[in-house]
């Protein structure tokens, strides 16, 4: 523990929160921000005013806007940048990262074009074995964790011992991580839940109630599990924190960017208007719905909710027609 030094790349709400978790766990951590003014605010005022206003950050949390400073002596590197920009950013940092460092992805998505999961992108860019890459996922609403409300999470890595090392580095009195070796299932759960949350937000924006929400969550979990099965994931993963846990939190909470984005669409806003209202906060599902849809088509997996969300976000489909599209599908057994 004393020899571990973690560099967290990305000072958004979740990156900042996870850096706080690491510092509270007693881990030596430095947070890199793209903008110098954010790094300076954290260093001088112990606060990230843009993403976590009002949250006091630990004294032990260092901050910088210089990637060389962040990576100096780093044994572990946390990647907390948006999924669709991960490859570009990681390519820029690649030569500065210790070749033996554990690489930890916080991003939840499937890359457009390549259809790769985030750990696969890391492996490809860095040229490291999959066992060197870990994923942190689960019901991770940043503002609640930053407020030290009790939550559990998952550290997934095919190397169990490496997952345990990361687990120990981020265990606090309010943040309880479990380990899992099913990286495929954990990443798919994290990526797909953003798309399902968009649909739940649309339903809420249209004025639909809890029955509709429960239906979308349950059938969304079913289509996520179908995709996971086709890609070799453990079906039990989707009943855990990385599956159902993350799905319920993201689909139900007003703190969820994807649910909030979907609600704006349901109330009649255009995608452009909803993007403007988000003030730079990324709703990952808006782009991932397309890559997940394509991944499902490639493997012959039926994902009707994902299909409808893609059509709303990218083909001009009216959210008001969403319910009829889904309810009107041919009846069939649940399993």
Structure description:
The protein has helices spanning 13-24, 36-45, 67-71, 86-93, 118-126, 142-146, 160-169, 183-205, 210-230, 241-252, 257-266, 271-277, 285-298, 304-314, 322-327; strands at 5-9, 28-32, 61-64, 76-79, 102-105, 133-137, 151-156, 175-180. The protein is of the alpha/beta class and 335 residues long. Strands 3-2-1-4-5-6-7-8 form an 8-stranded mixed beta sheet, sandwiched between helices. Strand 4, helix 4 and strand 5 form a beta-alpha-beta unit. Helix 8 runs parallel beside helix 11 (257-266), helix 8 packs across helix 13 and helix 13 packs across helix 14. The radius of gyration is 19 Å and the shape is globular.
What is the percentage of strand-forming residues? 5-15%
* Beta-strand segment tally: 8
What is the distance, rounded to the nearest whole angstrom, between the alpha carbons of the first and last residues? 46 Å
User: How are the strands ordered across the major sheet?
Assistant: 3-2-1-4-5-6-7-8
Rg computed from alpha carbons, rounded to a whole number of angstroms: 19 Å
Give the oligomeric state of the chains in this entry, treating copies of one chain as homo and distinct chains as hetero: single chain
Number of helices: 15
Overall helicity: 40-55%
Uncertain residue segments: none
Mean pLDDT reading: 95
């Amino acid at each position: 523990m004393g020899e571990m030094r973690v560099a967290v790349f990305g000072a958004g709400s979740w990156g900042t929160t996870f850096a706080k978790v690491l510092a509270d766990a007693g881990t030596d951590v430095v947070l890199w921000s793209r903008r110098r003014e954010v790094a300076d605010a954290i260093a001088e005022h112990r606060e990230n005013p843009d993403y976590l206003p009002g949250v006091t950050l630990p004294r032990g949390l260092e901050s910088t806007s210089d990637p060389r400073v962040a990576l100096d002596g780093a044994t572990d590197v946390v990647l907390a940048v948006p999924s669709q920009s991960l490859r570009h950013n990681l390519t820029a940092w690649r030569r500065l990262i210790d070749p033996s460092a554990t690489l930890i992805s916080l991003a939840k998505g499937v890359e457009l074009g390549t259809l790769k999961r985030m750990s696969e992108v890391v492996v490809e860019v860095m040229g490291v074995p999959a066992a060197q890459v870990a994923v942190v996922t689960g019901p991770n609403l940043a503002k609640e964790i930053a407020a030290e409300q009790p939550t559990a999470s998952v550290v997934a890595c095919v190397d169990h011992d490496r997952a345990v090392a990361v687990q120990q580095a981020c265990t606090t009195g309010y943040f309880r991580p479990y380990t899992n070796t099913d990286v495929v299932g954990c990443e798919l759960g994290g990526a797909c839940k953003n798309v399902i949350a968009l649909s739940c937000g649309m339903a809420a924006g249209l004025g639909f109630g809890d029955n509709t929400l429960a239906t979308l969550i349950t059938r969304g979990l079913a289509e996520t599990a179908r995709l996971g099965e086709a890609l070799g994931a453990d079906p039990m993963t989707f009943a855990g924190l990385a599956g159902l846990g993350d799905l319920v939190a993201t689909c139900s909470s007003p703190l969820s960017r994807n649910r909030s984005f979907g609600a704006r669409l349901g109330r009649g806003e255009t995608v452009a208007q909803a993007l403007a209202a988000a003030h730079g906060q990324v709703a990952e599902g808006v782009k991932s719905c397309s890559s997940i849809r394509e991944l499902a088509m490639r493997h012959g997996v039926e994902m009707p909710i994902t299909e409808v969300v893609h059509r709303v976000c990218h083909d001009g489909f009216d959210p008001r027609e969403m319910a009829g599209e889904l309810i009107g599908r041919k009846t069939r057994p649940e399993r």
